[in-house]
Amino acid sequence: MMLGVTSILRCQGLIQNTVRLLNRNLHKEAIPVEWKKPEIGWTKLNFDGSCKGKLRKASIGGVFRNHKAEFLLGYAESIGRTTSVIAELAALRRGLELVLENGWTDLWLEGDAKTLVDIIVEKRQVKCAEAQRHVNHINLIIPELNNCIVTHIYREGNRAADKLAQIGHQLEKPKLWRHIPPNEVLQIVNEDAEGKIILRRR
């Protein structure tokens, strides 16, 4: 009888520990992520780079929206073989070139590659010469803007740019969308505008 009670107590202890562990993990995992609108008069660029497979085929994409979360401009392009870091930098650089072309002066730049965001914000030097060329170009454009902030967001809040980067893999030449996003991006843009929250699982 004592063995039975001991076993039951041990079992109950294991169950309680497992429940506690599961609760802790669930609490850890549930990070709410939401795309945020820029302030009135500001334009927000979300950018992303994509690198696929052993051949490291890369593409870039980005989306510009205003304070009403209205789609202003999207871009996508295949950029050949390279690394994911170069793809992210190329996506931001192309976005900034479009900023100058369109005369936007107050910019919120947002991407999901934290390392890259840190490089730009902290004006770090990088070892790769090609990456440094992109960084130098980006650092020349940013001072031309009236105001500019650069932030990191989890991928769940960068879905529109991510989708455009995926579209870039299928393109033979660079493509722009003005005022109306491609069908694959439309739902994401609408969900972002409505403030949809997506839980990030760590």
Automatic annotation (TrEMBL):
Q: Which GO terms describe its molecular function?
A: nucleic acid binding; RNA-DNA hybrid ribonuclease activity
Cross-referenced InterPro entries, in alphabetical order? Answer: RNase_H-like (IPR053151), RNase_H-like_dom_plant (IPR044730), RNaseH-like_sf (IPR012337), RNaseH_domain (IPR002156), RNaseH_sf (IPR036397)
- Matching Gene3D superfamilies: Ribonuclease H-like superfamily/Ribonuclease H
Q: Where is the RNase H type-1 domain?
A: 46-166
- Say which domain of life the source belongs to: Eukaryota
The protein here is known as: RNase H type-1 domain-containing protein
